[in-house]
Amino acid sequence: MSAPLRLALFDCDGTLVDSQFAIFDAMSSAWAAHGLGEPDPAEVRRMVGLPLVQAVALLLPDLNDDRHAAIAESYKQAFQALRRRGDLQEPLFPGIRDALDALEARGVLLGVATGKSRRGLDAVLAHHGLTERFVTLQTSDIGPGKPHPDMVYRALAETGVEAARTVVIGDTTYDIQMARNARVASVGVSWGYHAVAELEAAGASRIVHRGPAVAEAVLALLDHG
């Protein structure tokens, strides 16, 4: 009898890759295109992980929905321009590749659940040679974004893994809340865009401070609950 399938579902921005500077550059360009001055870097950082239009709406609550959508479109164009020029910096965090290797060596399936567009996710995974590592890729442009549990549910449906054998790994409260809403365990990482205290308060099952420690924490949750 084969062993039950297990799944580690990773966030992308702030967990796998450090994209904060590229995100802020694109957001600054979008603000400028609409005569809005300069966004607050700390506030932009806090919104990473949410669906783009929702993030823009939270950053600019006094504007209407049409303006939010137009600014989001300007952001997409600015981000794509960065990529075309070769100015896009989205490095892997230290130890992440080791963590993926360790989980795969133990037979754990790998997936991504991100606020990034599918186009953006495909590009960053291809850049780092990671595309074939992940068996399910969930993005917010095909359904509700975080903290709604939809991306987790879709990943479970695609892979056939049970919720009890799934762990979400992320750096924001949106990741942890998504996991809780889907009733799966979660690992919060300390190198991302929300503070450790916030991740703990949101209900993270474990907190890790180094990339290689991700695998150990995920396996502990999968093996022992």
TrEMBL record:
Q: Which GO terms describe its molecular function?
A: phosphoglycolate phosphatase activity
Instruction: Kindly indicate whether the keyword Repressor belongs to this entry.
Output: no
Indicate the segments annotated as coiled coil, or none if absent: none
For this protein, the record's SUPFAM superfamilies field holds: HAD-like
Going by the entry's taxonomy, the superkingdom of the source organism is recorded as Bacteria
Is Hydrolase included in the keywords of this UniProt record?
A: yes
Under Enzyme Commission nomenclature, its number is 3.1.3.18
What keywords tag this UniProt record? Hydrolase
Top-level class of the enzyme under EC nomenclature: hydrolase
Q: Name one Pfam family in it.
A: HAD_2
Q: What is this protein called?
A: Phosphoglycolate phosphatase
Tell me which species this is from.
Azospirillum rugosum
